[in-house]
Amino acid sequence: MWGNKGGVSIRFNAYGCSVCLVNSHLAAHDSELQQRIDDYNSILDHQKFIDSQAENIITHDYTFWFGDLNFRLDEFTAEEIVHLVEKKNYSHLLLKDQLRKVIKLGQAFSEFTESPPVFSPTYKYSIGKSAYDISKRKPAWTDRVLFRFTPNAYENATLSLKQLHYHSHDLYEQSDHKPVTSSFLLKTFSQPKEKQVFFLPIKDWRVNSDSAAWYTFSEGAEPSTWDWIGLFRADYSSIDEHVCYIWAPVRPSSNTPVLPSDTFHLEEQKDSATSSCSASMVRSHQGPWYRVVFADQTLLIPGRYRLFYISSAFDDILGVSEPFGKLKHISAIVYTALKMLYMSFRTY
Length: 348
Hints:
By secondary structure, the protein is α+β, with helices and mostly antiparallel strands. The chain has helices at 33-46, 78-86, 90-94, 98-105, 262-269, 279-284, 332-347; strands spanning 6-14, 17-25, 62-68, 143-149, 161-168, 180-186, 197-199, 211-217, 228-233, 244-247, 289-294, 305-311, 316-320. The protein has a four-stranded mixed sheet, with no helix packed on it. The chain has a four-stranded antiparallel sheet with strand order 10-9-12-13, with no helix packed on it. The radius of gyration is 26 Å and the shape is elongated.
Protein backbone atom coordinates (compact mmCIF):
# COMPACT_ATOMS: atom_id res chain seq x y z
CA MET A 1 0.00 0.00 0.00
CA TRP A 2 1.25 3.44 -0.87
CA GLY A 3 0.67 7.13 -0.21
CA ASN A 4 -1.36 7.91 2.89
CA LYS A 5 -3.01 4.47 3.11
CA GLY A 6 -1.87 1.48 5.12
CA GLY A 7 -1.76 0.16 8.67
CA VAL A 8 0.45 0.17 11.75
CA SER A 9 0.29 -2.14 14.75
CA ILE A 10 1.74 -2.47 18.21
CA ARG A 11 1.63 -5.36 20.68
CA PHE A 12 2.27 -5.65 24.42
CA ASN A 13 1.55 -7.91 27.37
CA ALA A 14 -0.85 -6.81 30.11
CA TYR A 15 -0.66 -8.91 33.27
CA GLY A 16 0.03 -12.13 31.42
CA CYS A 17 -2.29 -11.49 28.44
CA SER A 18 -1.20 -10.47 24.95
CA VAL A 19 -2.80 -7.37 23.42
CA CYS A 20 -2.52 -6.07 19.85
CA LEU A 21 -3.65 -2.65 18.58
CA VAL A 22 -4.02 -2.01 14.85
CA ASN A 23 -4.67 1.40 13.31
CA SER A 24 -5.33 1.57 9.58
CA HIS A 25 -6.37 3.96 6.83
CA LEU A 26 -7.89 1.94 4.00
CA ALA A 27 -8.65 2.88 0.38
CA ALA A 28 -11.12 5.73 -0.13
CA HIS A 29 -14.19 6.29 -2.37
CA ASP A 30 -17.46 4.36 -2.71
CA SER A 31 -16.28 2.31 -5.68
CA GLU A 32 -13.08 1.00 -4.03
CA LEU A 33 -14.71 -1.66 -1.85
CA GLN A 34 -12.59 -4.48 -3.27
CA GLN A 35 -9.43 -2.48 -2.64
CA ARG A 36 -10.46 -2.03 1.00
CA ILE A 37 -10.98 -5.78 1.28
CA ASP A 38 -7.54 -6.37 -0.26
CA ASP A 39 -5.96 -3.78 2.07
CA TYR A 40 -7.36 -5.54 5.13
CA ASN A 41 -6.16 -8.97 4.05
CA SER A 42 -2.75 -7.60 3.07
CA ILE A 43 -2.23 -6.08 6.52
CA LEU A 44 -3.44 -9.29 8.17
CA ASP A 45 -1.14 -11.50 6.07
CA HIS A 46 2.02 -9.40 6.23
CA GLN A 47 2.09 -8.18 9.83
CA LYS A 48 4.25 -10.64 11.80
CA PHE A 49 5.62 -10.48 15.34
CA ILE A 50 8.68 -12.16 16.85
CA ASP A 51 6.72 -14.02 19.49
CA SER A 52 5.97 -17.74 19.34
CA GLN A 53 2.79 -17.23 21.39
CA ALA A 54 1.38 -14.44 19.19
CA GLU A 55 3.00 -14.39 15.77
CA ASN A 56 0.31 -12.39 13.98
CA ILE A 57 -2.51 -9.96 14.66
CA ILE A 58 -5.36 -12.34 15.42
CA THR A 59 -3.43 -14.83 17.57
CA HIS A 60 -3.29 -12.37 20.48
CA ASP A 61 -5.56 -12.78 23.48
CA TYR A 62 -7.10 -9.37 22.74
CA THR A 63 -6.99 -7.46 19.45
CA PHE A 64 -8.44 -4.02 18.67
CA TRP A 65 -8.60 -2.71 15.08
CA PHE A 66 -9.61 0.90 14.50
CA GLY A 67 -9.13 3.85 12.17
CA ASP A 68 -10.47 5.41 8.99
CA LEU A 69 -11.59 2.16 7.36
CA ASN A 70 -13.43 4.12 4.65
CA PHE A 71 -16.40 1.75 4.23
CA ARG A 72 -19.39 3.53 2.71
CA LEU A 73 -23.19 3.25 2.46
CA ASP A 74 -24.54 1.67 -0.73
CA GLU A 75 -27.73 2.44 -2.68
CA PHE A 76 -28.84 5.52 -0.70
CA THR A 77 -28.43 9.01 -2.11
CA ALA A 78 -26.71 11.66 0.00
CA GLU A 79 -30.04 13.39 0.63
CA GLU A 80 -31.67 10.14 1.76
CA ILE A 81 -28.83 9.46 4.19
CA VAL A 82 -29.07 12.95 5.71
CA HIS A 83 -32.84 12.53 6.10
CA LEU A 84 -32.48 9.18 7.89
CA VAL A 85 -29.70 10.57 10.11
CA GLU A 86 -31.93 13.45 11.16
CA LYS A 87 -34.53 10.86 12.20
CA LYS A 88 -31.76 8.79 13.91
CA ASN A 89 -32.83 5.79 11.86
CA TYR A 90 -29.35 4.28 11.99
CA SER A 91 -30.49 0.66 11.83
CA HIS A 92 -32.01 1.21 8.38
CA LEU A 93 -28.80 2.80 7.11
CA LEU A 94 -26.65 0.00 8.53
CA LEU A 95 -28.44 -2.51 6.30
CA LYS A 96 -26.48 -0.99 3.40
CA ASP A 97 -23.21 -0.50 5.28
CA GLN A 98 -20.30 -2.00 3.33
CA LEU A 99 -18.36 -3.08 6.43
CA ARG A 100 -21.24 -5.12 7.81
CA LYS A 101 -21.73 -6.69 4.38
CA VAL A 102 -18.12 -7.85 4.00
CA ILE A 103 -18.12 -9.21 7.57
CA LYS A 104 -21.24 -11.25 6.82
CA LEU A 105 -19.74 -12.56 3.57
CA GLY A 106 -16.41 -13.41 5.26
CA GLN A 107 -14.44 -11.14 2.91
CA ALA A 108 -12.87 -8.88 5.55
CA PHE A 109 -13.01 -8.31 9.33
CA SER A 110 -15.03 -11.51 9.80
CA GLU A 111 -12.65 -12.38 12.66
CA PHE A 112 -13.76 -9.23 14.49
CA THR A 113 -16.87 -7.84 16.17
CA GLU A 114 -18.28 -4.33 16.01
CA SER A 115 -21.13 -3.00 18.10
CA PRO A 116 -23.70 -1.26 15.85
CA PRO A 117 -22.94 2.48 15.80
CA VAL A 118 -25.57 4.51 17.65
CA PHE A 119 -24.12 7.81 16.48
CA SER A 120 -24.35 9.72 13.21
CA PRO A 121 -22.08 8.84 10.27
CA THR A 122 -18.70 10.43 10.95
CA TYR A 123 -17.89 11.60 7.39
CA LYS A 124 -18.02 13.92 5.45
CA TYR A 125 -18.51 17.19 7.36
CA SER A 126 -17.84 20.78 6.40
CA ILE A 127 -14.72 21.80 8.32
CA GLY A 128 -15.58 24.20 11.11
CA LYS A 129 -19.23 23.14 11.12
CA SER A 130 -21.44 20.28 12.27
CA ALA A 131 -23.22 20.00 8.92
CA TYR A 132 -22.48 17.40 6.26
CA ASP A 133 -20.74 18.40 3.04
CA ILE A 134 -22.62 16.40 0.40
CA SER A 135 -21.31 18.29 -2.61
CA LYS A 136 -19.02 15.38 -3.61
CA ARG A 137 -19.37 12.67 -0.94
CA LYS A 138 -22.20 10.76 0.73
CA PRO A 139 -22.16 10.57 4.55
CA ALA A 140 -20.85 7.26 5.91
CA TRP A 141 -19.46 5.57 9.01
CA THR A 142 -15.86 5.58 7.79
CA ASP A 143 -14.32 5.64 11.28
CA ARG A 144 -14.76 2.39 13.20
CA VAL A 145 -13.56 0.38 16.21
CA LEU A 146 -13.60 -3.43 16.06
CA PHE A 147 -12.39 -6.02 18.54
CA ARG A 148 -11.83 -9.72 19.13
CA PHE A 149 -10.60 -11.94 21.96
CA THR A 150 -10.01 -15.61 22.70
CA PRO A 151 -11.97 -16.54 25.84
CA ASN A 152 -10.54 -20.06 26.22
CA ALA A 153 -6.90 -19.33 25.47
CA TYR A 154 -5.79 -20.76 28.84
CA GLU A 155 -6.71 -23.90 30.74
CA ASN A 156 -6.81 -22.20 34.14
CA ALA A 157 -8.71 -19.01 33.23
CA THR A 158 -11.50 -17.72 31.00
CA LEU A 159 -10.89 -14.33 29.42
CA SER A 160 -13.65 -11.78 28.92
CA LEU A 161 -14.05 -8.45 27.13
CA LYS A 162 -16.77 -5.84 27.68
CA GLN A 163 -17.20 -2.71 25.60
CA LEU A 164 -18.10 0.16 27.91
CA HIS A 165 -18.83 2.82 25.31
CA TYR A 166 -18.62 3.53 21.57
CA HIS A 167 -19.17 7.20 20.70
CA SER A 168 -18.40 9.91 18.18
CA HIS A 169 -17.56 13.44 19.29
CA ASP A 170 -19.55 16.01 17.34
CA LEU A 171 -18.02 19.06 19.02
CA TYR A 172 -14.74 18.58 17.14
CA GLU A 173 -14.93 20.59 13.92
CA GLN A 174 -11.27 20.76 12.86
CA SER A 175 -11.66 17.93 10.33
CA ASP A 176 -14.15 16.60 7.82
CA HIS A 177 -14.30 13.50 10.08
CA LYS A 178 -15.76 13.27 13.58
CA PRO A 179 -13.44 11.36 15.95
CA VAL A 180 -14.64 8.08 17.44
CA THR A 181 -13.62 6.62 20.80
CA SER A 182 -14.34 3.39 22.61
CA SER A 183 -13.37 1.98 25.99
CA PHE A 184 -13.22 -1.63 27.13
CA LEU A 185 -12.98 -3.67 30.29
CA LEU A 186 -10.87 -6.78 29.76
CA LYS A 187 -9.98 -9.62 32.08
CA THR A 188 -6.35 -10.50 32.77
CA PHE A 189 -4.52 -12.64 35.28
CA SER A 190 -4.52 -11.30 38.83
CA GLN A 191 -0.74 -11.55 39.07
CA PRO A 192 1.62 -10.68 36.20
CA LYS A 193 3.65 -13.58 34.88
CA GLU A 194 6.28 -11.36 33.30
CA LYS A 195 9.57 -10.79 35.03
CA GLN A 196 9.97 -7.18 36.20
CA VAL A 197 12.87 -5.06 37.45
CA PHE A 198 12.44 -2.22 39.95
CA PHE A 199 15.09 0.50 40.24
CA LEU A 200 15.60 2.50 43.39
CA PRO A 201 15.22 6.25 42.73
CA ILE A 202 18.62 7.52 41.63
CA LYS A 203 20.09 10.74 42.99
CA ASP A 204 22.00 12.96 40.59
CA TRP A 205 25.12 11.43 39.09
CA ARG A 206 28.21 13.57 38.58
CA VAL A 207 30.51 13.99 35.63
CA ASN A 208 33.88 12.21 36.05
CA SER A 209 32.68 10.17 39.03
CA ASP A 210 31.81 6.50 39.37
CA SER A 211 28.03 6.24 39.67
CA ALA A 212 25.93 3.40 41.04
CA ALA A 213 22.33 2.23 40.88
CA TRP A 214 20.37 -0.39 42.82
CA TYR A 215 17.57 -2.61 41.57
CA THR A 216 15.66 -5.77 42.42
CA PHE A 217 13.41 -8.27 40.64
CA SER A 218 9.77 -9.18 41.03
CA GLU A 219 9.08 -12.20 43.22
CA GLY A 220 10.40 -15.45 41.78
CA ALA A 221 12.37 -13.75 38.98
CA GLU A 222 16.13 -13.63 38.55
CA PRO A 223 18.64 -12.29 36.02
CA SER A 224 19.74 -14.15 32.91
CA THR A 225 23.19 -14.31 31.39
CA TRP A 226 23.81 -11.45 28.95
CA ASP A 227 21.07 -9.20 30.33
CA TRP A 228 22.27 -5.61 30.05
CA ILE A 229 21.58 -2.20 31.53
CA GLY A 230 21.64 0.78 29.18
CA LEU A 231 22.03 4.47 29.95
CA PHE A 232 19.62 6.58 27.87
CA ARG A 233 18.87 10.26 27.70
CA ALA A 234 15.45 10.93 29.25
CA ASP A 235 14.14 12.21 25.89
CA TYR A 236 15.19 9.06 24.01
CA SER A 237 13.14 8.00 20.98
CA SER A 238 14.57 4.54 20.24
CA ILE A 239 16.04 1.58 22.11
CA ASP A 240 19.08 1.95 19.82
CA GLU A 241 19.95 5.37 21.29
CA HIS A 242 21.73 4.20 24.44
CA VAL A 243 24.67 6.35 25.48
CA CYS A 244 26.44 3.28 26.82
CA TYR A 245 25.65 -0.03 28.49
CA ILE A 246 27.10 -2.63 30.84
CA TRP A 247 26.29 -6.28 31.41
CA ALA A 248 23.94 -6.86 34.33
CA PRO A 249 25.44 -8.82 37.24
CA VAL A 250 24.05 -12.33 37.69
CA ARG A 251 24.79 -12.39 41.41
CA PRO A 252 23.21 -10.05 43.97
CA SER A 253 25.24 -7.60 46.01
CA SER A 254 26.48 -8.65 49.45
CA ASN A 255 25.33 -5.24 50.72
CA THR A 256 21.85 -3.80 51.15
CA PRO A 257 20.81 -0.36 49.86
CA VAL A 258 19.26 2.35 51.99
CA LEU A 259 15.60 2.26 51.00
CA PRO A 260 13.93 5.59 50.16
CA SER A 261 11.40 7.33 52.35
CA ASP A 262 8.03 8.46 51.04
CA THR A 263 9.23 12.07 51.44
CA PHE A 264 12.20 11.46 49.15
CA HIS A 265 9.96 9.74 46.61
CA LEU A 266 7.43 12.58 46.56
CA GLU A 267 10.20 15.12 46.02
CA GLU A 268 11.47 13.07 43.11
CA GLN A 269 7.97 12.82 41.64
CA LYS A 270 7.71 16.61 41.37
CA ASP A 271 10.33 16.40 38.64
CA SER A 272 9.12 13.19 36.99
CA ALA A 273 5.93 12.36 35.11
CA THR A 274 6.46 8.62 35.48
CA SER A 275 7.74 6.33 38.18
CA SER A 276 9.52 3.02 37.92
CA CYS A 277 8.67 2.00 41.46
CA SER A 278 7.04 3.77 44.40
CA ALA A 279 8.84 4.05 47.73
CA SER A 280 6.32 1.76 49.42
CA MET A 281 6.68 -0.79 46.61
CA VAL A 282 10.47 -0.70 46.93
CA ARG A 283 10.30 -1.32 50.66
CA SER A 284 7.93 -4.25 50.11
CA HIS A 285 10.68 -6.13 48.24
CA GLN A 286 12.98 -8.15 50.46
CA GLY A 287 15.62 -8.48 47.78
CA PRO A 288 17.99 -9.81 46.79
CA TRP A 289 19.35 -6.45 45.66
CA TYR A 290 21.69 -5.92 42.73
CA ARG A 291 24.16 -3.07 42.36
CA VAL A 292 25.58 -1.81 39.09
CA VAL A 293 28.39 0.75 38.72
CA PHE A 294 29.06 2.92 35.68
CA ALA A 295 32.64 4.17 35.27
CA ASP A 296 33.65 7.81 35.71
CA GLN A 297 33.68 8.53 31.95
CA THR A 298 30.07 7.43 31.44
CA LEU A 299 28.21 10.68 32.08
CA LEU A 300 29.97 13.19 29.84
CA ILE A 301 27.16 15.64 29.11
CA PRO A 302 24.92 17.20 31.77
CA GLY A 303 21.26 16.43 31.30
CA ARG A 304 18.47 14.05 32.24
CA TYR A 305 18.96 10.30 31.93
CA ARG A 306 17.26 6.95 32.57
CA LEU A 307 18.48 3.40 33.08
CA PHE A 308 16.87 0.53 31.16
CA TYR A 309 17.13 -3.13 32.12
CA ILE A 310 17.06 -5.23 28.93
CA SER A 311 16.40 -8.98 28.95
CA SER A 312 18.65 -10.95 26.61
CA ALA A 313 16.27 -13.92 26.65
CA PHE A 314 13.22 -11.97 25.47
CA ASP A 315 14.83 -8.85 23.95
CA ASP A 316 12.44 -6.93 26.16
CA ILE A 317 12.54 -3.98 28.57
CA LEU A 318 11.99 -5.31 32.09
CA GLY A 319 12.44 -2.07 34.00
CA VAL A 320 13.04 1.68 33.61
CA SER A 321 14.41 4.03 36.24
CA GLU A 322 13.02 7.44 37.04
CA PRO A 323 14.83 10.33 35.29
CA PHE A 324 17.99 11.50 37.05
CA GLY A 325 21.25 13.39 36.51
CA LYS A 326 20.21 17.02 36.27
CA LEU A 327 23.54 18.66 37.12
CA LYS A 328 23.41 22.22 38.43
CA HIS A 329 25.72 25.24 38.46
CA ILE A 330 27.98 24.14 35.61
CA SER A 331 29.65 27.00 33.75
CA ALA A 332 29.22 27.44 30.01
CA ILE A 333 32.95 26.81 29.47
CA VAL A 334 32.85 23.49 31.33
CA TYR A 335 29.65 22.47 29.54
CA THR A 336 31.17 23.25 26.11
CA ALA A 337 34.33 21.32 26.93
CA LEU A 338 32.32 18.31 28.08
CA LYS A 339 30.17 18.43 24.96
CA MET A 340 33.24 18.54 22.68
CA LEU A 341 34.72 15.60 24.56
CA TYR A 342 31.47 13.68 24.22
CA MET A 343 31.21 14.35 20.47
CA SER A 344 34.81 13.30 19.88
CA PHE A 345 34.12 10.13 21.88
CA ARG A 346 31.05 9.35 19.73
CA THR A 347 33.02 10.03 16.53
CA TYR A 348 35.80 7.74 17.66
